[in-house]
Amino acid sequence: MKKEYPNPVQASRGQKALQPNHFHLAGKVVYFVFWQFFFGELVPVIYCPKCGKVDKVTSDGWTGVSEKIRRVCSANALAFLFSKVFRCGKGRKKGEGCPANDGKPYQFRSHDEGVLEQLRRQCPAVLDQLPIVFTRGGAIERSLLDTMVRNVASSTSIADQQKMVREAHMRTFTQQKVTYIQYAAARAKLRQQESGAHLYPGRAQQPPPPPSDFGEYADKEGYRGWIPSTSWIAGVILASLNSRLAFLERHLAAVDGVFWRGDHTFQAASRIRSADGRKDYTAIYSIMNEWSQIVGQWAVGDTSFDEYATGVQDVLKRYDALGYQLPKYMWVDNSQTVAAQLYDAIPSLSRVLEDATHVMRRVFEIIPDGHSLKADFCRDYSSAIFQIHQQDKWALREFLLAGGPGRRKWTQAEGGR
Ligand SMILES: [Zn+2]
Q1: Domains along the chain?
Q2: CA of 194 to the centre of ligand 1 (A)
Q3: Contact 288, 295 (CB under 8 A)
Q4: What is the top-level taxon of the source organism (predicted)?
Q5: Which member of 184, 209, 256, 293 lies 3.0 to 4.6 Å from 324 by CB, making a disulfide possible if both were Cys?
Q6: Greater pLDDT, 22 or 310
Q7: Which pTM value belongs to this model?
């Protein structure tokens, strides 16, 4: 369904005049949307989205012919949707049109929401494997959308993402404009040679006509350049995140466990920002089970229990609905402040325990760094809490020195610790 226009030199070959249009077309991509043609067996019939019937549906040309062509937001060049148009019913007499449209004919396009909805029902794989994702009023390249979602996760602002697209598009535009100018100059030179200017230098030569202007980026008659607005980008990213969230929610619902561990992380929360770059949350609170799977996770405004109390109730309701065994033990980062509230909220808990690393950290923080015995004390205190299995420790050391789970090998110095 994807067509790339040939390069401009090919496009203008055999033409009498050099048309900027050849260069305007170059590098542009058109996505044809015609389900029955490309996926005949998977999508044999498209029903009228208005009345749900098929008997009066007929072909009615293509988008972009009679109306505004729809854009596809692409990473580095212009792209368009070219959609098959249909019509339910024809004629002007009453009853000849679509029964659900007051008997008037109803026109619809292949990328209309009502048609996409049919595809999602009949064969969702068709939409999932396309190189583009349909949005309100157009589409976006799937790879670009994935990049944008990834960028949001690493706190790139929407405005920055828009700049990224703009720079890439401007580069494509400039490249084509420069190629056009060079090509026009080369043609003018060739024409002079062919007219015998070198053989008869004295003879008056007719100067070649100046090449027509390539125009500017946004020229409606020319390049027709376009940059997506920040609000459009934000809307598309949000819609994509919401569709991913549905999957995560289904996945989360299947997780159980009786040993819970609740902890705040502050780093991830700093990456959640509103459109104007403001931080919206202080922390992420996660509850994990004995297999380190996430049972529940919430963005919170502060570290108080109230911020995730409703969330815990939701998890318990889910446990109850699915017949899971309720949690018995829970490790937390500060049992003194939340233990009573947790016992109250989760009646099945028999113990709220202090996470050992947090206990240690709290003790270590009290001792001034300058204290001569701090290092010795910390080491002894740690070995009093953790019983380290020497064979495991050496196996882990070997693993890390050999490359470990990440990209970077450990050095001998790090392995010595
Ligand atoms: Zn109809």
Answers
A1: 2-141 (no CATH), 254-354 (3.30.420.10), 387-417 (no CATH)
A2: 62
A3: yes
A4: Eukaryota
A5: 256
A6: 310
A7: 0.63
